[in-house]
Structure prediction request, 355 residues.
Amino acid sequence: MNNKITIETEAVSSKDSDPPSSPVALGNLTISERERHKLIKTEPVSLGSFFVNLTNQKIEVVSDIKRCKELWDELSAKETLFDTWEFRYAFYLGYGFTPYFLVLKSPTENLALLPLWYDDEEEKYVWFGSSWQEEVRFFAKDLKYIPPLISAAPYPLFLNAISPESVKPIGNTVKFVQDEAKYILKIKGFKQHEDYLATLKKNGRKDLIKDKRRIQKQNPEIIINNFADFDQLVALAKKRFAQKGEKTDWEDPRRIETFRQVIKLSGPSYRARMISIKIGEKIAGVDLICLFKNTYFAVKCGYDVAGFSGIGNYMNLIEIDDAIKLNMEKIDFLQNNYTWKSRWFESVPLFKYEK
Prediction:
């Protein structure tokens, strides 16, 4: 059986390519190092799509955004917010990097999808939508099709925040390593945030109640879905990080545009929601939330911690009540501990792969 992979493109003909050098393993297939180099160095935008032909299967690389959406709609599991096309597409509109979708195909059907793009600044291939995505699930009719796609993917490659459900079945084939955990709160059965407080140890419960009372004494006004407060969210976050001497992703105007698009694209799959806390004439805090299925995603926030001590913990309790009211079963506080999430919420392991 001839397992050699040849690359057919409109710009480069396989018959004109250099002789293969040492082959690199691709599951039960092989790809030459020179062919891999040509795959990496050729800009997807100039090629559109090309094929890697196997005996019964082939890998198609797609960069046309309309075709990418069709493949996404066909193969995405749509289990979490990060599986939705609209959420990822918001990042495409914000950053504009060229899609690089690898599709494993049989003669009759699409079998698996590895949606990537090349990040010019990080100089590596990452998830379509950037490495900000998390709890990423592989899109495949059977996960056995994923290792060949990962092997065929160009490098440098960085796949982060992969869900345990995707890793477990193929962990013996692909060398995944632990990534930073994400944090969740299961609220099914709760009637109010006091039910959550009752699950905490005495000192933790005391601290949250103290912050809650501190803010309540200032007569906070809770405002729902005033999306014009997005600008306040960004400003508060920038100020808070500056006070800590740290950089924030909000310094990049493309990130701001991305989350404007997250709000704008709300509806077909997820619902955007915003909670603002106003005290006197000042905005003390703003949270951007996305609702998908039974999960309440705490996506972005900005707090005036210097002016309103305890506002972050107070907002968490408001979110718990809001999620319960909306019949959510879980709040997803996303990845990265930021020195405080592990104290209050349950951690969920995530994994990454790099080459």
Observations:
- The chain has a mean pLDDT of 86.
